[in-house]
């Protein structure tokens, strides 16, 4: 994707594999199974200048299920040292590691804890993936909005998130970035300052910063919203 033609503030997304849109744009040719889109260059948002409120809805969430799990960025091989810092003072106890992360709210989005090691993850897009290390005994935990509470809105599939009406798609109501898949988009929601839901399609991830009350029929997109006990979760006033 020649995104420089769009502007300096845009970059190519990750490859979107086996996309119907690729074939459509190329006359239905089945050989076109990969394409890219141009998305705005993501910048690190400023941290929220307040202390964490234990009642605001953020939770600790296991990444990768049971077993030894090490935290990663966007994919299993993405382990840039810039994503985390080692905390020797909390390397002997998981709870101490977690508490140190909470003490560094809002810049800490999770921890990786293993034998004699505590990593505080401050990658602003959150912990998007995991891997199984050769050494046993590792745990990867997100700290943020629960991705388990992101549920399909109006069926989810082929639905785009909207605000106060099916036509309300105000750009001020979401933050835009690229994502490898829906799970990556949900992980970014977990780490966001506020997230009422996500819209994902073709490598495009919208973190909805205002309530999603409606959806629109848009092929290839999915809309998921935060819910709790059958009601939309109030994540921030």
Strand content: 35-45%
The major sheet is characterized as: 6 strands, antiparallel
Protein structure class: mainly beta
Helices, by number, come to 3
> What overall form do the CA principal axes indicate?
elongated
Task: Note the gap between the termini.
Answer: 39 Å
Report the strand count: 17
Taken in chain order, the helices and strands follow as EEHEEEEEHEEEEEEHEEEE
Oligomer: single chain
Tell me about this structure.
- The chain has 237 residues and is mostly beta strands.
- The chain has helices at 20-25, 94-103, 182-191, and strands at 10-12, 16-17, 34-35, 38-40, 59-62, 70-72, 84-86, 110-114, 117-121, 129-131, 139-144, 150-162, 174-178, 197-201, 204-208, 214-228, 231-232.
- Strands 12, 13, 14, 15, 16 and 17 form a 6-stranded antiparallel sheet that branches. Strands 5-11-8-9-7 form a 5-stranded antiparallel sheet, sandwiched between helices. A two-stranded antiparallel sheet has the order 1-4.
- A hairpin with a 2-residue loop joins strand 8 and strand 9 (117-121).
- It starts with 9 loop residues before the first strand and ends in a 5-residue tail after the last strand.
- The relative contact order is 0.16.
- Residues 14-21, 46-50 and 229-237 have low confidence and may be disordered.
């Amino acid at each position: 994707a020649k995104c420089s033609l769009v502007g300096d503030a845009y970059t190519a997304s990750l490859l979107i594999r086996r996309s119907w849109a690729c074939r459509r744009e190329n006359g239905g040719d089945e050989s076109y199974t990969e394409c890219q889109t141009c998305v705005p260059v993501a910048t690190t948002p400023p941290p929220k200048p307040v202390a964490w409120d234990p009642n605001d809805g953020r939770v600790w969430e296991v990444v990768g299920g049971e077993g030894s799990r090490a935290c990663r960025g966007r994919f299993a091989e993405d382990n840039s040292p810039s994503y985390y810092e080692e905390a020797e003072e909390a390397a002997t106890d998981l709870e101490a590691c977690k508490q140190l992360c909470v003490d560094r709210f809002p810049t800490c989005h999770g921890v990786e804890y293993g034998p004699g090691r505590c990593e505080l993850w401050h990658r602003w897009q959150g912990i998007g993936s995991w891997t199984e290390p050769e050494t046993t005994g590792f745990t990867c935990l997100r700290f943020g909005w629960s991705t388990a509470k992101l549920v399909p809105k109006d069926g989810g599939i082929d639905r785009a998130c909207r605000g106060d009406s099916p036509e309300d798609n105000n750009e001020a109501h979401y933050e835009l970035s690229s994502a490898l898949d829906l799970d990556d988009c949900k992980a970014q929601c977990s780490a966001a300052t506020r997230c009422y839901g996500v819209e994902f399609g073709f490598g495009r991830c919208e973190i909805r910063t205002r309530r999603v009350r409606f959806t629109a029929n848009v092929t290839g997109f999915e809309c998921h919203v935060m819910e709790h006990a059958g009601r939309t979760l109030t994540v921030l006033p």
